[in-house]
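General statements about sequence and structure are easier to judge against a single worked case. In the encoding step, the backbone of a single protein was reduced to a row of integers, each denoting a local shape. The record that follows shows the chain in one-letter code together with its fold in token form.
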Amino acid sequence: MGQLATITQPFCATQHARLRPRFASPLRQRMLRRMTQRVGDRDLMVRYGKGEADAFDLLYGRHKGPLYRYLMRQCGRDDVSADLFQETWSRVIQARHRYAPTAKFTTWLYRIARNCAVDWARKQRVSLSLDDVPEPAAEREPTPEQAAITGESLHRFRHALTELSFEQREAFLLREEGGFGVGDIAAITGVGRETAKSRLRYAARKLRAALAEDAETLDE
């Protein structure tokens, strides 16, 4: 968590601070925060586009953790993940006046993040991999399945993840890190619903097979 805070503090202090409007009083700011805490993501983004910078703060606080973990596991490098994280939010800021609430905010946000990752990979002429990725700080309680994957099991799981195709790994990470359903994954990656479902199915099958094979090897 400390690492994430170190990454995000310069971003908030430089790129976003200059966009914050001057409200009439501290009381007005407190009233706005209480009001926007009950508002959905799409409405917050619309309000941010109209100049309510507090709305951005709430969006950023809601989504920074899962988004950072998604980029971390997609690009495979800690330093690059930080750059892509900041680039994603920079594009959100730049697009604030053009945002149209026709889709879920998270779908739009992760499509931007995905494009940043793909652009970086193309420029570097590398394939997106998860080898040697440091484990990002968790911001939510692990599921029983996640809690069971520790030590060597975690290492084997992450290695199995690198063996997936980019498309299958991407679909898996969007579900696990972003919490997206099949329809949203299809929208983010620009494919049909059945294609997204197939990628998820093959990813799960390959991961289960890899972990089962490793377990059998240990039992021998």
